[in-house]
Amino acid sequence: MRNILLILLSVIVTLVCVKNPQTINIDLFVESKVALWKLLLTFFAMGVLFAFLLKSGKKTKQQENTAAFDQSEDDNQAPKSTLSDEDRDFLS
Fold it and tell me: Which residues span the membrane (predicted)?
């Protein structure tokens, strides 16, 4: 399912870039002319990178919290044996 969504997203981005070949004037720091498809592709790539960075930061925090929770759980509880008396006799 994920692969299908990635292929669909790639096709949509390609179609948007192909349908916007015109040149636009940008007057941000320096006045320049840029193809609109290059500008759209740049902003799309920046959005993907930003989402990836947010996702990786969230995973790191979750792993730290999970490790701390597991450690506190081990400290508070003594190991419990699930063996019955008959099983212990059989094993010894």
Answer: 35-54
Q: Is 31 in contact with 19 (CB distance < 8 Å)? A: no
Distance CA 68, CA 65 (A): 5
How far apart (Å, rounded) are the C-alpha atoms in residues 16 and 29?
26
Instruction: Examine residue 67 and state whether it is found in any structural domain, yes or no.
Output: no
What are the percentages of helix, strand and coil residues in the chain, rounded to 5? 70, 10, 20
What are the tens digits of pLDDT across the range 28-59? 888 999 999 999 999 999 998 998 898 887 66
Q: Is residue 90 part of a domain?
A: no
Residue 61 lies in a domain: no
